[in-house]
Amino acid sequence: MPTNRDADDKDRCKLSMRTVTVHGATLFEVRTGAISTPIYQSSTFRHPGLGETTGFDYSRGINPTRMELEKTIALLEHGTCGLAFATGMGAISSVIKLFKSGDHLIVSEDLYGGTYRLFSEYYARYGFSFSWIDTSDIALVEASLKPNTKAIFIETPSNPMMKVTDIRRSAELIHSRGGILVTDNTFLSPYFQNPLDLGSDLVVHSGTKYLAGHNDTLSGFIVHSRPDLADDLVNAQKSEGASLSPFDAWLTLRGIKTLSVRMERHEKNARRIAHWLREHKRVEKVFYTGFEDHPQYRLSGTQSRGFGGMISFYLKDAADVPKLLKNISLILFAESLGGVESLLTYPLVQTHGAIPEAMRLSAGVNDRLMRLSVGIEDADDLIADLDSAFSKCV
Ligand SMILES: Cc1ncc(COP(=O)(O)O)c(C=O)c1O
Q1: Counting atoms of ligand 1 from 1, which one is nearest the CA of 89?
Q2: What is the pLDDT of residues 275-290, one digit of tens each?
Q3: Are 177 and 7 contacting, i.e. CB atoms less than 8 angstroms apart?
Q4: CA-to-CA distance for 374 and 379, rounded, in angstroms?
Q5: CA distance 187 to 289
Q6: Counting atoms of ligand 1 from 1, which one is nearest the CA of 218?
Q7: How many other C-beta atoms are found inside a 10 Å radius of the C-beta of residue 86?
Q8: pTM
């Protein structure tokens, strides 16, 4: 089985997540002693002779910098194999290469709009069918299974409505049919949630978000421990050519070093801001998995170690949207999440613009919904910024 974890990685698995993030899979490069993984900016590698190899040949398939990142994400997600892609969408597109025309997939209806577009506008053309449902309703997931269902694809917590899907139960349901569970773990990162431990077969990430963490690069991952899928996934990565470049692999590795401190601060700030927003007179409702009255609060406690840094909220009046976006000055009006800078997004026209209106509205994405990716700035400054912007919404 192609695995990029070494035998002695077993010892590394015993280390705390805080330590693994800092040191990655390899403490230092043996040849030079370099502590920061060198950027092997080479497209190709010389062979010593016919039938001889250094283990590297062509960077679309394998590259030393990317390999260190792939081993690191495999360790963090408790998998045996990690694959790094140019973007999260590159990773998700490669997952779909496991299936064939006629296959049916159950997908969270409330998920990143780009994933919806990829599945419904492209893969539907090749004979795949999709049921878009509220996967936090496990009875609905069960009722949606068909004889040709080959996978359940979930985002949990979901983007942007913060619904939580039961990973264990979803895995049991699809395994009883011989299919696979794919979990997009972007929102919590491996620091707060490890879906492979709960029965998910594949984990995907937009590494662009919390893993890289600085809004300065894009990347994506697939992680798994399935020997039977390993060749297919490696081939998909190599054949499609969406593999991550050495420099972006290095930036992502550097970001991961501080994942634990960032996630802890993101969460602390998000908790304060969620409670503050909930009391604000211009806000109708706040969606945050850390509220004790969140419908899946208890479930979160059984499958995650934290609530992350994402909050969504409905304003009472849609007319406040442009005013709020215009008047925030520290928090930035931009699309993306998971970076050190706080970003406010308007899903209707940004992240979820590709989703048809009826489906968007059924998922809860209306013209009053805002999504806040809480950064690691001082929480008082963030609250003061929101307060000042709200005060101008008159
Ligand atoms: C949950 C989730 N998954 C996947 C993606 C796609 O990732 P990328 O933008 O790195 O292609 C995004 C992007 O916003 C996302 O939010």
Answers
A1: 11
A2: 999 999 999 999 999 9
A3: no
A4: 9
A5: 11
A6: 10
A7: 20
A8: 0.96
